[in-house]
Amino acid sequence: MPLMTRRKLMFAATGVAAAALAPRIAVAQAPTAPAPAAGPFKQDPLPYANNALEPHIDARTMEIHHDRHHAAYVNNLNTIAKDNPKIAQAPIQDVLAKLGELPEAIRTPVRNNLGGHTNHTMFWQIMGAGGGKPSGDLAAAIDRDLGGLEKFQNEFNGAGTRVFGSGWVFVLVTRDGKLSLESRPNQDSPLMDGKRVLMGNDVWEHAYYLTYQNRRPDYLKAWWNVVNWNKVAERYAAAKAGTLTI
Ligand SMILES: [Fe+2]
Predict the structure, then answer these.
(1) Which three-class secondary structure state does DSSP give residue 90?
(2) From ligand 1's centre to the CA of 90, what distance in Å?
(3) How far is the CA of 117 from the centre of ligand 1 (A)?
(4) By CB distance 3.0 to 4.6 Å, which of 94, 126, 194, 246 could disulfide with 90?
């Protein structure tokens, strides 16, 4: 074969090889988070940087947790809302409190995804760098209803450890400011029973596995370092004013 022809063939082959590789390169460079589905449900950005809670919660966990797990719940809700727009036309707490009124086919998906959306929205809010301790009215309520901060934290951690599989541990608050602990499986929310959540911790493995693996009790213990007590106090005041929603 003449030299030029062989060169042309090699060039052509290289081009073919590059073209064959192109889609794979494109996939590798594509954003890892799913594109948000258009619709009425929106996800707020994290109110701090992904690495703000280190070393207690690592940046990669925060990124995956917020941008993929929570985002998936929001995307799923927007998909459900296409054929069932009513789920977005009432406040979240009202939809969750009246799941039984939804068509049976979407009842469980709404329970899981709207529960997941509201649980995570609360969760991002009540964390932040800094730590500290509760004060004022909130500290007084913890002393009165939960036996003081140390006893409260121990019992909360115990409840979180005892959740079998995935779920949440919450502090509930009544309109008159009374506090109590409650755990729930999966993405169930106390809002389903018309209750209000003061704060809560996510004990799904996705919340802690990269740093803590199977050591959920270590995660529960470390998590107190990233509780934003000012935000919890704001939610406590809102509960007593009757304006706490999700
Ligand atoms: Fe989660």
Answers:
(1) coil
(2) 24
(3) 9
(4) 94
